[in-house]
Amino acid sequence: MSRIKGQDIVVLIKDNDTWKAVAFMTVCELDESVSVIDIGSATSGKWRHVKPKRMSWQITSGHLASDAQAAVDLESILTTGQRIQVAFIQVASHPSPMTEPPTYTPSTNADAFKRYGFCYITRLTVSARNKDFVTMSVTFTGDGPLSTSLT
C-alpha cells in the first residue's frame, strides 16, 4: 500500500456528464461524522452508553482565486440551491496546479481513495489579505450517503 500525497486528492463536481475540478486547488478535506444518542439509564452506572443515530458528511475545499473563467460557477450553484454530485478522489500524477489548472485523470490503482455523493454548496468564502493571493473556500454538505463507486 502506497502513501497518498495531498496534491493527488481532488474534489470534482459533475457538470452534465463531465467531471470538473475547482481551479488551483490548494487544500481539501472530507469530514464524516455520526451523532449518537444516550441509551444508558440511571442503573447503568457512571459510564455513558451511546448508540449511533444519524450520519453526515461534509467536504471543504480551498483554492486560489483566478481571473480566468472558472470551470464551475460555484456562486450560481450556491444561490440557486442546486443539488450536485461530487467526487473526493485520488487522481493520477499531474502537473502542478499552480501553473495551469490540469485535467485530472482518476487513479487506476485498485486501492485508490474515492468517495462519491450528492450534496449542496452551503458556504462560499472569499478571503483577501493585503499583499497576498485571494483565496476561495467552499463547503459541500452531503445529502445522503457517500459511496466508493458511482453505482
Task: Give an overview in words.
It is built from 1 helix and 7 strands; from the N terminus they run ββββαβββ. With 151 residues, the protein is mostly beta strands. Strands 2-1-5-6-7-4-3 form a 7-stranded antiparallel beta sheet. A hairpin with a 2-residue loop joins strand 1 (9-15) and strand 2 (18-21). It is globular, with a radius of gyration of 18 Å. The mean pLDDT is 84.
Fold topology:
Elements lengths: L8 E7 L2 E4 L3 E14 L11 E15 L9 H7 L3 E7 L23 E14 L7 E8 L9
Antiparallel strand pairs: 1-2, 1-5, 3-4, 4-7, 5-6, 6-7
Descriptive keywords:
mainly beta, Pnp Oxidase, Chain A, 1 helix, seven-stranded antiparallel sheet, 151 residues
Number of domains: 1
CATH structural architecture? Roll
What portion of residues is helical?
Answer: under 10%
The first-level CATH class is given as: Mainly Beta
The topology string of helices and strands comes to EEEEHEEE
What low-confidence regions span 5 or more consecutive residues with pLDDT below 50? none
Gap between N and C termini = 25 Å
Would you tell me which CATH topology applies? Pnp Oxidase, Chain A
Which strand-content bin applies to the residues? over 45%
Radius of gyration: 18 Å
